[in-house]
Write a structure and sequence with these properties.
By secondary structure, the chain is mostly helical. Helices cover about 55% and strands about 5% of the residues.
C-alpha cells in the first residue's frame, strides 16, 4: 500500500549530505522502503530518480514496478490523476518554470508528483523550501501542496513518521 509520494529531491538531497558509504544503515532502511511498494512516483519523477548514483540509485532502477504508478496501468485512479495534472497546469500556469522561463519555481515534474499525492491523498516528501510569499512570481512544491491541502514533508519528517532511527 502506498504511503508517501516522493519528489527526486526527497532522496537525492539527503543522499548528498548523508552519503551512503558513511550512513550505510540509514540507506539500508530507505532502500527497504523503496522496495516495499510504500513509495509512489510518477513517470517524470522516476525518470529523474534513475540518475541517482550508488546502491540507492540501483535500488530505484531495480524497483521501477514497486515505485512507479503509470497512467493506464494498474488499479489506481489514473483518470483522476490525469484530470488533476491538467487542472494544476492551468491553475498554476503563471508559476510553472516551463511556461515562465523562471528558475527556482515549480516545474511540470513537480506538478505531476503533487497531482499524484492529491489523487492518492498522500503526503509529498521533498527537500524544497516554501517561498511563503504570496506576491512572489515563484512557487515551490511546499507552496503548491499548501494551496492544494496536501501535507508536505521533509526527509527527516518522513523518517520520523516511519519510525526510522539511525
Amino acid at each position: 500500500m502506498k504511503k508517501h509520494c516522493f519528489d527526486t529531491s526527497g532522496i537525492s538531497n539527503p543522499l548528498e549530505t548523508m552519503p551512503e558509504d558513511i550512513h550505510e544503515s540509514a540507506w539500508a532502511k530507505i532502500k527497504a522502503k523503496i522496495t516495499s511498494g510504500e513509495i509512489a512516483v510518477t513517470r517524470e519523477i522516476f525518470d529523474e530518480m534513475v540518475h541517482i548514483v550508488g546502491t540507492v540509485g540501483q535500488c530505484i532502477k531495480d524497483s521501477e514496478s514497486e515505485l512507479l504508478l503509470e497512467v493506464g496501468e494498474g488499479d489506481w485512479d489514473h483518470a483522476t490523476y490525469t484530470a488533476e495534472v491538467a487542472r494544476m497546469q492551468v491553475d498554476y500556469a503563471d508559476f510553472i518554470a516551463e511556461n515562465t522561463g523562471r528558475a527556482g519555481t515549480v516545474g511540470l515534474n513537480d506538478i505531476s508528483i503533487i497531482a499524484l499525492a492529491k489523487t492518492l491523498k498522500l503526503p509529498v516528501v521533498s527537500m524544497e523550501s516554501a517561498v511563503n510569499n504570496d506576491t512572489s512570481l515563484k512557487r515551490r512544491i511546499p507552496d503548491i501542496c499548501k494551496l492544494e491541502g496536501i501535507q508536505h514533508m521533509y526527509f527527516s519528517d518522513y523518517c520520523r513518521a516511519e519510525g526510522l532511527k539511525f
